[in-house]
TrEMBL record:
GO terms for molecular function: 4 iron, 4 sulfur cluster binding; metal ion binding; tRNA-2-methylthio-N(6)-dimethylallyladenosine(37) synthase activity. Residues 121-364 form the Radical SAM core domain. This is tRNA-2-methylthio-N(6)-dimethylallyladenosine synthase. The lineage of its organism: Bacteria, Candidatus Shapironibacteriota. PROSITE patterns: MTTASE_N (PS51449), MTTASE_RADICAL (PS01278), RADICAL_SAM (PS51918). Residues 2-125 form the MTTase N-terminal domain. GO terms for cellular component: cytosol. Its EC number is 2.8.4.3. Its cofactor is [4Fe-4S] cluster. NCBIfam families: MiaB/RimO family radical SAM methylthiotransferase. CDD domains: Radical_SAM. Pfam families: Radical_SAM, UPF0004. Keywords: 4Fe-4S, Iron, Iron-sulfur, Metal-binding, S-adenosyl-L-methionine, Transferase.
Amino acid sequence: MKKVYIKTFGCVQNTADSERIKTYYWDKGYEELEDWKKADLVVINTCIIRESAENRAYGLINKVNKFNTNQKIKIVVTGCLTGVALRDKSGKKLNELKNRFPMVDEFLSIDKVSYQIDPLRNKRGAALIIISSGCNNFCSYCIVPMARGKEISRPFDEIILDAKKVLDQGFREIVLIGQNVNSYGSDFSDKSDIFVHMGKKRFRSLFPKLLEEVAKLKVDKVSFLSSNPWDFSDELIEVIAKYPNIDRLLHLPFQAGDDEVLKNMNRGYAKQEYLDLVGKIKKNIKDVKISTDVIVGFPGEDEKAFLETVDVCKKIKFDIAYINKYSPRKGTVSAKLWGDEIPQSEKKRRWKILDDLVNKKILS
């Protein structure tokens, strides 16, 4: 049997995609192994959300190529890097990618790996179930809409069937996954059902109903990633509060505490609106914990603006913060409109302040 090595960079959605990729190549006669040097095929599932992740993927491509002197190993690249190139209708970006990496045998669209394929899941952890792919929000710093396309939700009944199947397979925990998981179903919900939440007009999401149906199954714990504040509705809060098997650690990115920075990020809410939402969540859901994402060094974030972010962290007392130093992503609005004027040393300083405050619990 031929051997395939699969390397996954980036978020949990990429991890879930790689589980389908395993099946995709299993059906083609490949068996997975953990040493790429012994592989017939190396598949690199890329992330380009941050420059560091993109550079690690490039490094692996070049490492495999340097080792592959006899051309025994075929190289396939998929994920967000390929997604951006293949969604460029002019073909220019794909040609640029092929010219830069002539050693790559195939740039595989993740869309080709159908959701009808049963993923080969990691039996050691929770079952990852993708409920939607893509994003319609266009935060100014984010490449996801260009890499993943518009938000598309999977059919409701198909997801419930998946959930029942993994429970039959012995999994006791389920994680529901989407780029904006709590807007699930808004692309096929009643378009007349519009509400305003945190200053944004939104189509009614089916996610509270979906989450409730999964929670009703005999599952020990159900979690979801990643959610956005403007889709965290009162209905969703009520469902989480009602079912004790829904994870009490909720991930709710806020990204920045300054209103002007939030506006330039196209986040659609103000600092106080975010604080009010978290206050409502804590009031209604017993023992809730909050994790978050933060970006430091976004264009225009001076010291005063940064201290607004510090203030949010102090007031909310996040359990975990995933802190990222801003890096401009080619093709995004922020990269087009603003420079990257904040020095790396200053970004590192701000990163450390927040890491000490939130993750290390060192008061400042």
